[in-house]
Design goal:
The structure holds 2 protein chains of 2 kinds.
Chain A lengths: L17 H8 L5 H22 L3 E2 L9 H6 L2 E13 L2 E14 L5 H10 L3 E2 L1 E4 L1 H6 L2 E2 L5 H22 L4 E5 L10 H12 L5 E6 L19 E4 L17 H12 L5 E7 L9 H15 L5 E5 L8 H22 L2
Parallel strand pairs in A: 1-4, 3-6, 5-7, 7-8, 8-9, 9-10, 10-11
Antiparallel strand pairs in A: 2-3
Helix pairs in contact in A: 6-7, 8-9, 9-10
Chain B lengths: L1 E4 L8 H8 L5 H18 L5 E2 L10 H6 L1 E10 L6 E12 L4 H5 L11 E6 L1 H7 L1 E2 L5 H17 L7 E5 L9 H15 L5 E6 L8 H4 L6 E5 L16 E7 L9 H15 L4 E5 L8 H20 L3
Parallel strand pairs in B: 1-11, 2-5, 4-6, 5-7, 7-8, 8-9, 9-10, 10-11
Antiparallel strand pairs in B: 3-4
Helix pairs in contact in B: 5-6, 6-7, 9-10
The chains are: A alpha/beta, B alpha/beta.
Chain lengths: ~350, ~300
């Protein structure tokens, strides 16, 4: 597989423009017009990502309501139960599994084909993984969570990935934000990931975020057949510049473990905190990357991304952050003579 | 006779969710109206203890996080293994209370004279475990500081309450004898002079290895979450206290069958031989949507009627 040291990429979602949200909520607007508007925004996102200089792109998930609900609506056996609190007055629509799951046909193919036709950079396609779908849903149909998760992996996610690869997807990011919620279920996370991609030839990443300690993934995660981890770190790191352990306290623990286990997989290093409006300076991004390269001894293993999807920030803030991410990466590359 | 009650925060209905999101000016009025309705639902479903549904609380700690002296509101933090987050209290200096936080956060004005009132509060260890301590020197100091707070809070409302339920998911996780003993001593300070019935509700963990230690805690009832603790793992014992059985799964939309619960209760009675038996929810109902919580309350009523008929 060709190496791209410090390749910059985005994780997934970008906030939809206000005009699009308004239009999508308007009952008098036809579905065709709504779909065309989504295409416009997908195109706009692609163009903005390219102009900023990202190396690997997607469409900012312009066609998806939300990573979890979008999938639940498209899998037989799952249905939405109602709203559950995430925090304070923020709620999400939670699904319930009432009968054995079944693949109803590809649900990201059209959006992928649109991206493929219009993108001039490498494409990374994000999909929601089996473990997170199971963990975030009520299980009324299976004897155990293990059975539910593995069935989702084999009967839904694997055929979906097969269809996506058939249409040309060669880099797929499986989003598993729930992966580290139950540290004693890491083997299930690994097994469901491996079942999802079994027999399929493509590059696979796994995106995990807001874990208490990523080191808890070891040693089980060594068996995972992913090529890249896309992880959140900036949220827990200091905003001081520098490449000392104390200045890079958000990265230290995981990178030490990563090295200890002799990992050869790539790390998509979260260098932007998606929960604050403050924009990281290019120098801060540079130092986070230099620290990761110092700790891994291998720039080919380090890739660059925000902690998570940026949809909780305004579009202006998101693009400003991504711009500084690219500038900071260039500064790091220059320092490393890459 | 078996007692029935539900625990903690009840889910908000769709209208309230929208109103909280749009910061509706009539929100307070809406909360009050909905609380009255939910209290009526509890009465109609024949629950023996009625509690404030706490639908205006943003998380189980929030009234304390926002009103305790010495504490600041911290970052969003995952609430155990759930896809739900709370604002972590950060202990910056010596904590203190006016003693009226709970009194002002519970709808005492809406309970009818017929209601036997239950209140929910976290135990001192769970308060400690869910907070970030930047002031006290040890775990024990923090636990004792929270115990003082809880005691003061309970003293100001004990006349209005017939059952105090200490919700204890963090405590349920610990197994070390010295730590359990430390919390037991803190609990002794809390309940000293309190003549209200108390329940220590051990949510979310398998406590089959520690039940013996919890039996020594100064409470009248032990709550076991039987969706997390498998009954087969408990040895047959003579329980010296009442047992509240968390048999109504508050984290799954799958509806219980009353016949299954009756069978479980018979089994539990045989295994534990408790002084009294109660059926409760395994956690806060807010982990399932409102319509499912309503149905589960109806199922509790069915279980109550059946168990009465069977003289269980």
């Amino acid at each position: 597989m060709k190496k791209f040291p410090l390749a910059t990429q985005e994780i997934g979602s970008i906030r939809k423009p206000k005009w699009l949200v308004k239009l999508l909520q308007d009952k008098n607007v036809s579905n065709d017009v709504k779909e065309a508007a989504r295409s416009d925004v997908a195109l706009l996102n692609l163009k903005l990502f390219e102009d900023i200089g990202l190396d690997v792109i997607y469409d900012g998930e312009a066609r998806r309501v939300e990573m979890y609900e979008y999938s639940i609506r498209r899998i037989e056996g799952l249905q939405l139960a109602g709203k559950i609190r995430s925090w304070d007055n923020k709620y999400y629509n939670k699904g319930r599994c009432t009968k054995k799951v079944k693949y109803m046909g590809p649900y990201h193919v059209d959006e992928f084909l649109f991206v493929k036709e219009n993108a001039n950079k490498m494409i990374k396609l994000p999909i929601t993984g089996a473990y997170t779908l199971a963990d975030w849903s009520y299980n009324e149909a299976y004897k155990s969570k293990e059975d539910f998760t593995i069935d989702l992996a084999k009967k839904v996610i694997r055929p979906l990935i097969k269809d996506l690869v058939k249409t040309g997807a060669d880099f797929i990011q499986i989003d598993e934000p729930a992966a580290t919620t139950h540290p004693d279920e890491m083997q299930l996370v690994v097994d469901s990931f491996n079942e999802s991609i079994k027999g399929i030839n493509a590059k696979f990443g796994i995106h995990i975020c807001y874990s208490e300690d990523y080191s808890n993934m070891y040693p089980e995660v060594l068996e995972m057949k992913n090529h890249q981890y896309e992880l959140e770190f900036a949220n827990r790191d200091s905003w001081n510049k520098g490449i000392s352990h104390s200045n890079r306290n958000g990265y230290e623990s995981f990178l030490k473990t990563f090295k200890e286990y002799g990992e050869k997989k790539e790390i998509g290093l979260g260098v932007l905190d998606v929960h604050v409006d403050e924009v990281e300076s290019p120098e801060l991004v540079r130092d986070r990357l230099l620290y990761a390269v110092k700790m891994t001894d291998n720039p080919n293993l380090v890739h660059v991304n925000p902690d998570c999807g940026l949809r909780t920030r305004s579009r202006e803030t998101s693009f400003a952050k991504l711009k500084n991410m690219v500038i900071g990466t260039e500064m790091a590359k220059k320092r490393l003579e890459l | 006779m078996i007692n029935y009650w539900s625990a903690g925060i009840y889910p908000r209905n769709e209208k309230l969710i929208e109103s909280t999101r749009s910061y509706d000016k009539t929100l307070e009025k809406q909360f009050k109206k909905e609380k009255s309705r939910l209290l009526r639902i509890q009465l109609n479903n024949k629950l023996d203890y009625i509690s404030d549904p706490l639908i205006d609380w943003d998380d189980n700690l929030r009234p304390f996080t926002d009103n305790l002296k010495g504490i600041e509101r911290g970052p969003l933090t995952r609430y155990y293994e759930n896809n739900t987050f709370y604002r972590q209290p950060i202990i910056k200096s010596k904590i203190g209370t006016t003693g009226n936080i709970l009194k002002n956060s519970i709808c005492f004005d809406l309970f009818t004279s017929k209601s036997k009132v239950k209140i929910d509060i976290l135990d001192p260890f769970t308060f400690y475990d869910l907070s970030a301590n930047e002031f006290y020197r040890s775990e024990e100091e923090v636990v004792n500081a929270f115990a003082e707070i809880i005691k003061k809070e309970l003293n100001s409302l004990k006349k209005d309450v017939q059952l105090i339920q200490f919700n204890s998911p963090s405590l349920a996780r610990i197994e070390e004898a010295d730590r359990l003993n430390m919390v037991k001593k803190a609990m002794e300070k809390i309940v000293k002079g309190l003549d209200t019935k108390t329940c220590l509700n051990l949510w979310g963990s398998d406590i089959s290895n520690t039940l013996e230690e919890f039996q020594e805690f100064p409470v009248d009832i032990i709550g076991i979450d039987f969706t997390s603790s498998n009954i087969d793992k408990f040895d047959k014992i003579e329980m010296k206290k009442g047992l509240a059985c968390g048999l109504i799964d508050a984290k799954n939309t799958k509806m219980e069958k009353s016949s299954d619960i009756i069978r479980e209760l018979k089994n539990i009675k045989k295994t534990f031989n408790p002084e009294s038996l109660s059926v409760i929810t395994s956690w806060d109902f807010e982990f399932i949507p409102e319509s499912f919580a309503d149905k589960k309350l109806q199922i509790m009523k069915q279980i109550k009627e059946k168990s009465k008929m069977m003289k269980l």
